[in-house]
Amino acid sequence: MKRINTILVVSASLIIGMPTLCSCQPDVDPQPQDKEVCDVCGKEECECGKEPTPDPEPIVPVTITFRGLLDEMISDDEMTRFPSEEYTQRQASSYDRRSVTPNDPENWFRNDDGWGYERFEQRDNRLEKVIFEEENPGVITRIWLTSFGSTNTVIRFYFDGSITPQWKISSFDLQDFAGDTGVKLGDGLVQPGNNWIRGSVLYLPIPYSTSCKITIEELTDDPYTTSRYYHINYRRYRKDAKVKTFSKDQLIANKSKIKAVNEALLNPAPRVNSTYENAMALATGEQKGFELPSGTRAVSELKVSLSSEAHNTALLLDSIVVRATFDSNTTIEVPLSELAAVGIGGYYQKSARYTSDGKGAMAVRWLMPYQSEAKIEYHNISSQDVNIASVVSLADYVWDARSLYFHARHKEDKDVTVKLWHDYINGYEWDFTRISGGRGVFVGDVYTICSPNSDWNGEGDEKIWVDGEDFPSHYGTGLEDYYSFCGYFRFNAPQSGEPRLDEPKFKGNNTHYRCRFLDKIPFSRSLQFDLEMQGQECLCDLANTIFWYGDAQTLAEDMPAVDY
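The chain above was modelled as a monomer; its predicted structure follows.
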């Protein structure tokens, strides 16, 4: 976003109280080189009679703070808007550094992902592995770590060019991030609690003014032979952006705010100004809908429950397609099971955006704004008659130039080839999604893989390209890392989870979701998400749903409308 310095020109007519005239009709004839063109009719001699567009207000720089980021994390209204402060969301990871050139057949699909790092540094008689280094104002929005070796490490943060670490974690476990400050982060901001000792994920924002470096020191293991897997998502702001660097004092001063944010993530309560209820009987093959109250509003929660005399309703969720149209734009067209991120079979779910009881009742809490009109429709493509009850919570909403519509699209692919994880030469990428047509913000997804064997078939790296960049700003290390888990158990957390895991060894359906908060990805014109298909040689069935806020004309190119 370019800053424009404007000069306010005050005409003589304003000074002496005469009627305001179009800028192309000065009351004193200017010299020819001083003539101005009316910005309404486009002529030097104004014929339109309309007031010219006023100069824009100058942009006032905003300081990005730790507390402000905490507020943004739980602001549903801000989630619906394009960022006011320009930044790119990026990811540093331990991906195989031999992957340098896109489509290089020998190296692009390399998969030794535990060995990627920036370099080693010798400092104060210790050897530190640099895993993150950024020379711009920014904010770390998510850190995910796991390891197959010892967790006996020290993690250090160096801010703004300092040679002394300003923050230190005396453990590989991010649950110890707050250390001895007395601040409890809670399961909404750091996971997975005590369930999993082999890795952890932190969502607490870590802002820095000019630069940040993160290192790992191995206390007992050989630093050259110990693998460390990591993701660090971060925002890169403009060089002139004003960001206040994270500190212990800020963490302690915001103790109550952190507690409130943690509670909001674990027990979300959408803003409600009014509700609208609808009940309908839907025969097989039938489609019905209802209109929501007109005016500028936002759907803050959609609760849906199904009942059927002839069938287990949870199994019908993927056969009920929901379509939502806002201001004459159909932006949502997905199965109910996907909109609620529960997977085929309607499994139990509890996260910041979704809730499901596993019996056919669910709630979706993405804020969905509209300017004047909205309609929700259901299409029963199952072989059973069903009854659908809906409760729509509505909130007041102020639509502005940054406001975006909520979008959701879905697709399924059968018999997709998975390549052996170290068969680099024959590697390839599955089109997870391609969004184009305008600006937007990518905020989440659901992914289901049905495997015929007991091997993990999600070894492939995710690669996300924004606005046609030459190298993906997000290069991952496998789906288990993208969804912040290490497999082997079902879990539900505010930001990510695995509501369906048919077997501990992955055979059958595995459903994963990710909700992005501060790690949301803005784009100005396009976003491309590629996923390597690596694991054990086999054929798998895949399904995915993506969520983004975008201009009305944005679309997922590879996700057409549902074919009824």
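Residues 63-266 form a domain with the Jelly Rolls fold (CATH 2.60.120.1390).
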